[in-house]
From TrEMBL, chain A:
The keyword Iron does not apply. Keywords: Phosphoprotein. Signal peptide: none annotated. It comes from Halolactibacillus alkaliphilus. This is Anti-sigma factor antagonist. It comes from the Bacteria. Positive regulator of sigma-B activity. Non-phosphorylated RsbV binds to RsbW, preventing its association with sigma-B. When phosphorylated, releases RsbW, which is then free to complex with and inactivate sigma-B. GO terms for molecular function: anti-sigma factor antagonist activity. Belongs to the anti-sigma-factor antagonist family. PANTHER family: ANTI-SIGMA FACTOR ANTAGONIST TM_1081-RELATED-RELATED, ANTI-SIGMA-B FACTOR ANTAGONIST. Residues 5-111 form the STAS domain. The keyword Phosphoprotein applies.
Automatic annotation (TrEMBL), chain B:
The keyword Transferase applies. Pfam families: HATPase_c_2. This is Serine-protein kinase RsbW. Negative regulator of sigma-B activity. Phosphorylates and inactivates its specific antagonist protein, RsbV. Upon phosphorylation of RsbV, RsbW is released and binds to sigma-B, thereby blocking its ability to form an RNA polymerase holoenzyme (E-sigma-B). It comes from Halolactibacillus alkaliphilus. Keywords: ATP-binding, Kinase, Nucleotide-binding, Serine/threonine-protein kinase, Transferase. It is an enzyme of class 2 (transferase). One of its GO terms (molecular function) is ATP binding. Belongs to the anti-sigma-factor family. InterPro entries: Anti-sigma-factor_SerPK, HATPase_C_sf, HATPase_dom, RsbW. Its EC number is 2.7.11.1. SUPFAM superfamilies: ATPase domain of HSP90 chaperone/DNA topoisomerase II/histidine kinase. It comes from the Bacteria. HAMAP family: Anti_sigma_B.
Length: 111, 158
């Protein structure tokens, strides 16, 4: 089945960038959680999740980012989502989660 | 009685099939003439219902099936998602369903609390029946204007 998710993790200094490609749903969300949560558990770590190549996401993805946000509060790290496609960004707006999760819209759609 | 086509699918109650049902609804909605935006809304709403059904099946520790029914009408698409494997009768289900009461609070920050919220936000009408399993019945209306947004679809008498 060609419905999948791949995640590249780039670590440097106190920054971890996750480059996410594919679809985030009930099947693939556990993989995102597995890659994202350990980074949030590092004190002072700056985590950037690049969602440029995520064409589909549902509430299972929102759940992962809520878990990650909770973990950053616990460990003193930060989480920022960048390059969201309009459809994905819309879910954060509908649920009002964009008011508590940092979303950098200035680079949305940029390369 | 209002005419409609009915499509029924049964899938294992497993998360790996959520993407399959997403492709199915995309194909049906595209055939009906829904816009790109509406198709994306439908994909999320149906995925949420299927995810709920697979979670429910997992919690009940039964390897069951999810039954999905598509009612294709001239002016709307009705989708039913039932988390017990049995077939269902469209009119019987509709008689038993009531309006969905939104009671989830966003402030609670619950990791799994947004599924029904999104279904409600993205569909035009949502009804939920629980009892023998859970049945979600949701409706998306086709745009009422017959003239599309593209200028070249307007017919003229010139």
């Amino acid at each position: 089945m060609n419905i999948n998710l791949s995640i590249d993790v780039i670590e440097k200094d106190n920054q971890t960038e996750l480059i996410v490609t594919g679809e985030i749903d009930a099947f693939t969300a556990p993989l995102l959680k597995e890659k994202l949560l350990p980074a949030t558990a590092k004190e002072s770590e700056k985590i950037i999740v690049n969602l440029q190549d995520v064409a589909y996401m549902d509430s299972t993805g929102l759940g992962v980012f809520i878990s990650a946000l909770k973990s950053t509060k616990e460990h003193g790290s930060t989480l920022t989502l960048v390059n969201l496609q309009e459809r994905v960004h819309r879910l954060f707006k509908i649920t009002s989660l964009d008011s508590i999760i940092a979303i950098d819209t200035t680079v949305r759609g940029g390369e | 009685m209002e005419h409609f086509d009915f499509i029924e699918m049964k899938l294992p109650a497993k998360p790996e099939y959520v993407g399959v049902i997403r492709l199915s609804v995309s194909g049906i909605a595209n055939r009906m003439g829904f816009t790109y935006e509406d198709i994306e809304d439908l994909k999320v709403a149906i995925s949420e219902a299927m995810t709920n059904a697979t979670t429910h099946a997992y919690e009940e520790n039964e390897g069951g099936e999810v039954t999905i029914g598509f009612g294709v009408y001239a002016d709307r698409l009705e989708v039913m998602v039932a988390d017990h494997g049995g077939s269902f009768n469209l009119s019987d289900v509709k008689k038993q369903t009531g309006p969905y009461q939104q009671s989830e609070s966003i402030e609670n920050l619950r990791e799994g609390g947004f599924g029904l919220f999104l279904i409600d936000a993205l569909m035009d009408k949502v009804e939920i029946k629980s009892g023998y399993g859970v049945i979600v019945l949701m409706t998306k209306n086709l745009p009422t204007n017959e003239v599309g947004l593209d200028d070249d679809q307007i017919s003229t008498t010139q």
